[in-house]
Q: What sequence folds into this?
């Protein structure tokens, strides 16, 4: 079977880490020898790590490892495990006093699903790295998407299961653009090719029928207190095109269009929507706007796959069931 996920881009490995009996996890992307990177944050409630490093005006323009995790802020400790893995392999920024691995990442809020008190940590970050490979990426309710849900506009009790999705778009002259997205959205998910809703808020906790969200939103003045700030869509796009840090920042910004075309509403005050862009190849002569346009398609496909391949947990229905 041909690899149609982000790991088909040469030099990229992806791994997932899980804990038995815990609906949460970690996913890592490891670029061989590091990758030039950019990032763009659009959500109003982000949980991120190492993103300031990737500002175009700052010194460092490459990262050695990228992680996504559940556990809300607790999951940021996965970075220590990723850094340990890289340091043991002497991968990182040369300082003259040894290498310092440059790690970045973002987390989702899945504490509503995972109530065990156990969260992704450094050990799980290391585990995900040790299991990373260039094989077809496992999708659905795995890794950082294990506890991910979507369509929470009317409360957690009426949401649906989501997860991790990955995709690959092939362009001319050997160009590849891939995406890996963790969908834990406040909003609902639509297929932009058909306009059909594939993950919508349910009419009731024990119901499976979706409701007319647009009509309901037009009658609302706000959201129920206490539940909205539990969401985000995070992920990365990657390409084998030779792009610099500034260009990859532009690609990350354009890639958010794929999020906005599939998730409604997106980029709310209750989401931490964050997308990274990685340049992993040496393919020259590719226009940055072309790469960005293909990144939009890749993000769309990855989000749809994250929902369609997610299996239900703890009474939350999933389309894969």
A:
């Amino acid at each position: 079977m041909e690899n149609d996920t982000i790991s088909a881009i040469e030099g990229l490995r992806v791994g997932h880490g899980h804990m038995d009996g815990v609906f949460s996890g970690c996913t890592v992307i490891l670029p061989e020898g590091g990758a030039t990177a950019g990032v763009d944050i659009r959500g109003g409630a982000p949980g991120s790590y190492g993103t300031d490093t990737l500002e175009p005006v700052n010194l460092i323009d490459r990262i050695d490892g990228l992680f996504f995790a559940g556990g809300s802020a607790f999951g940021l400790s996965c970075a220590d495990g990723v850094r340990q893995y890289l340091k043991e392999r002497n991968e990182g920024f040369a300082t003259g006093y040894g290498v310092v691995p440059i790690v970045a990442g973002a987390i989702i809020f899945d504490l509503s699903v995972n109530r065990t008190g156990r969260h992704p940590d450094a050990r799980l970050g290391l585990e995900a790295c040790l299991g990373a490979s260039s094989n077809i990426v496992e999708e659905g309710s795995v890794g950082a998407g294990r506890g991910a849900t979507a369509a929470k506009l009317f409360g957690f009790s009426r949401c649906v299961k989501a997860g991790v999705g990955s995709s690959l778009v092939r362009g001319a002259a050997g160009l590849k653009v891939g995406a890996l997205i963790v969908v834990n959205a406040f909003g609902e998910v639509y297929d932009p090719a058909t306009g059909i809703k594939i993950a919508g808020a349910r009419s009731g906790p024990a119901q499976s029928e979706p409701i007319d969200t647009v009509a309901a939103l037009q009658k609302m003045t706000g959201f129920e207190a206490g539940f909205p700030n539990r969401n985000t869509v995070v992920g990365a796009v990657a390409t084998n095109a030779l792009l610099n840090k500034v260009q990859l920042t532009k690609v990350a910004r354009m890639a958010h269009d794929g999020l906005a075309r599939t998730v409604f509403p997106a980029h709310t005050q209750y989401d931490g929507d964050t997308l990274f862009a990685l340049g992993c190849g040496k393919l020259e002569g590719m226009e940055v706007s072309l790469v960005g346009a293909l990144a939009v398609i890749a993000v769309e496909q990855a989000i749809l796959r994250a929902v369609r391949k997610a299996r239900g947990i703890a009474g939350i229905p999933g389309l894969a069931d």
About this structure: The first helix runs from residue 78 to 88. The chain has a mean pLDDT of 93. The first strand starts at residue 12 and ends at 18. Residues 13 and 170 are 18 Å apart (CA to CA).
